[in-house]
Each structure stands twice: as C-alpha cells, then as structure tokens.
Amino acid sequence: MDIRLDWLGCATFRLTVGETVVFLDAYMDRVPSAPKVGLSAKDVERADFVLVGHAHFDHIAGAEVIAKSTGANIIGSHESCRVMKEQGVPPGQLLPSQGGERHRLGPDVTVRVLPSLHSCTWTTGSLSAMEPATGDLGLCEHERAAMAAQRGLGSTIGRRSQSGDAAANELREHLASAVGSGQTGGALAYLIETPAGSVFWQDTSGCWTGVLRGLNPDVAILAAAGRGNIDGEPVQGSLADFVALEASLLQPKTIVLGHHDNWMPPVTPAGGTDVAPIRASLGKALRSAKLLEPGYLEGTRLLG
C-alpha cells in the first residue's frame, strides 16, 4: 500500500492511502498575499474524508466546499460539525467526534480520534516565536481572556490597520469572510492506521502527554506554531522544546512539520517559522527520527 502526503500550506495536508484520499484540514484559500499552495478547495476533484483538527478558520475553511463537491465525510468536533452544517453540508456527511472514536476510512484504513489541546495563543501575539518563554502558569480562564484581549491577534491586526498597513487591512477582510468559529470546539488529533504503518496528525501545538505516550506512530505530523500547551499549561521553554517533547513521547520514525509557513501575512514572518531550532532540538531528542521538509504539493512518499 503506497502512502503519499501533499502539504497544502498551514496545517493542511492531503494523505493518499492506496485508493483512499483523506484531507487533513482544508484551509488552502488563504489571504491573497500568502504564498500560493497550488490547489484551491473548489478544484479538489476527489476526497473520501476530511479530518478537521479544530474549528478555527485556518483549519476548517474549505472543508464545506470539498464535502459538497465530492461527497466526502467530515470528521471533527461537535463545533466543527455545527459550523459545517450551517454551511450546508448534509448531516449524513458529518461524523461528530470528541476523542475515543474509531472510524473506517477505507477497506484497510481506520482512524482513531484522540483528545488534544490548542496552543496557548493567549500568552503571546506571535505565532512563530522561538525564544524560550516562562510564566503564565496556573491562570484562570478570565485571566487568560484578559491576556488574549491585550496581546492577541486581533490587537496586532488592529494596530497595523490603524497605521495604514495595507496587508493588515487585506487580512482583516479575509478574516471577516472566512468560514470558521471563534471557538476551537475542543482540539482533536488523529492516528491513521494502515497495513503499511500509522500516521499521527495534529494541527495545533498542544497535547495531553498521557495521550501521546505509547502511540508510537511510524510518521508524526506535528504543528510548529505558537506557544506549546502541555497538559493545559504553556510550555516553559521554546516552541522547539515543545516539538521535541512531543516527538520524544510519540517516538516516530519520520517527522513532518506543519503550520510553519507564511500562511497569514503580515502576522506570520515572510519566510515562515525558522525551523533550524526545531531541527536542532529534534536531533538531540530523537536522533533516529528522520525530518521530512516537503514543499507544497510534492507528493512525498511516507510509507509503503
């Protein structure tokens, strides 16, 4: 069984497992100033399933287009499925999940849905910070909300728009029209199991360590953005430290990064996240693992 992976920008991938086509998130139609990934949701001709990690626009947008044009089923949280139903996706194509479910994707392909966590976006306005961060521990939700209002993405875009930043205004318009939710809906991760091996995928930098420990996938697709969330608290270190921790828990043979390109200018850096610190941390934490760094739509062979 041949298993291939196409990166489609941000945390979106197309996984082809033999004859089964699975989209991991669906956000390809990005702000106009973002690099083009080579495919639009409306041009997808075949998909059997779309797995949605969480309900934010930069993950779920486009899933409704793919589902309605191809008949693909969508697996996601109850919030993700609510958003898709509002967009006209037939209820029969929606498989709401919260973690603990197993779904069949093909004759010899299944997926386990795992509970996960979103990155700690409330701690910083940067989506690609590599500098070690400490503190912000033990806060209640109202305290986190106050921090998010002060430091968050909306404040950053607002300041740049007020200064006449054309790219920020373009992004503001994109956000106003993008399909998605202001809530994560409860982040999910997925373990896709095939006769050729298993593929773990998550679309944001958060984890329950007890969930990841012992999964031992052959391939791990890990998000590399924001400040990592470990068991509900922000990582006391860098994003590179967090990715290395996840890899140590998962023990994959191959690692692929996601969410690290310049997917949302002007907030994300022009060249995307600097992955050199991640390479270095992974080299120390899991020397036997291979880091693949595919470009858009390269059809990288993962297994088989």
Outline the structure in words.
The chain is globular. It is an alpha/beta fold and 304 residues long. α4 (141-151) packs parallel to α5 (153-162), α5 crosses α6 and α8 (239-250) packs parallel to α9 (276-285). The chain contains 9 helices and 17 strands.
Keywords for this entry:
single chain, 7-stranded mixed β-sheet, alpha/beta, globular, 26% helix, 304 residues
Q: Tell me the structural class.
A: alpha/beta
Query: What string, H for helix and E for strand, traces the elements in order?
Result: EEEEHHEHEEEHHHEEEHEEEHEHEE
**Total helical segments:** 9
Q: Tell me, what's the shape?
A: globular
Question: In whole angstroms, how far apart are the ends?
Answer: 5 Å
Count the beta strands. Answer: 17
User: Beta-strand level of the residues, as a percent range?
Assistant: 15-25%
Low-pLDDT sequence parts: none
Mean pLDDT across every amino acid position: 94
Q: Radius of gyration over alpha carbons? A: 18 Å
The percent range for helix content is 25-40%
Q: What is the spatial order of strands in the main beta sheet?
A: 6-5-4-3-2-1-17
State the major sheet.
7 strands, mixed
